[in-house]
Amino acid sequence: MLLTPRPILFLLLPLLLASLVSACGFQRRGEIELPAEMRATYIKGQTPGELRNELKVLFSNAGGEIVDSPKQATAILDLLQVRFNRRVLSVSGQGRQLEYELSYQATFDVTSPQGEKLVKPQTVSLIRNYLNPETEVLGRSIEEKGLRHDMERELARQIAVRSYAQIRGGL
pLDDT per residue over 4-48, tens digit each? Predict the structure, then answer.
């Protein structure tokens, strides 16, 4: 059976698009690549449990793991400072808070178990705003918890991405 040019084009077009997308470095959202130096990472410092859990999930999905001891580690992620703040952005005429700003900040570095600096200290900051309607008391606490969870996930992702970039690019 002889194929005409049109069916051949419909067969080749998806293959061509797939190769173009993969060639540009496209990755699905949320997927990251870990450098070999961070495949087994120990987290040092005071880390909120939720952020630690997000780092565990992220590293696991990227083919790495968070280990329980620096002796098992290929890298040590030192969370030098982690802060979460909530502040009022606007107030109604009756003195009720109408809008809040949430900020999450982490300062970190990464060293090898021998003490060699792999990633110099840097800070990741995230800021989100949300409205606080007077009539939706239950909804606002759920919204804040959801935003905080999303911020923890993004903070973990930014720590991993920045670490990868600095290790690959050198200090």
Answer: 666 666 666 676 666 665 544 444 445 678 888 999 999 998 777
The answer to whether 118 touches 169, Cβ cutoff 8 Å, is: no
- pTM for the model stands at 0.75
Chosen CATH of 31-169 out of 1.10.10.10, 3.40.190.10, 3.30.160.150, 2.40.50.140: 3.30.160.150
Could you write out the three-class secondary structure of the chain?
CCCCHHHHHHHHHHHHHHHHHHHCCCCCCCCCCCCHHHCEEEEECCCCHHHHHHHHHHHHHCCCEEECCHHHCCEEEEEEEEEEEEEEEEECCCCCEEEEEEEEEEEEEEECCCCCEEEEEEEEEEEEEEECCCCCHHHHHHHHHHHHHHHHHHHHHHHHHHHHHHHHHCC
Q: Kindly compute the dihedral angle of the four CA atoms of residues 152, 124, 82, 163, in this order, to the nearest 10 degrees.
A: 90
How much is the average pLDDT of 125-147? 81
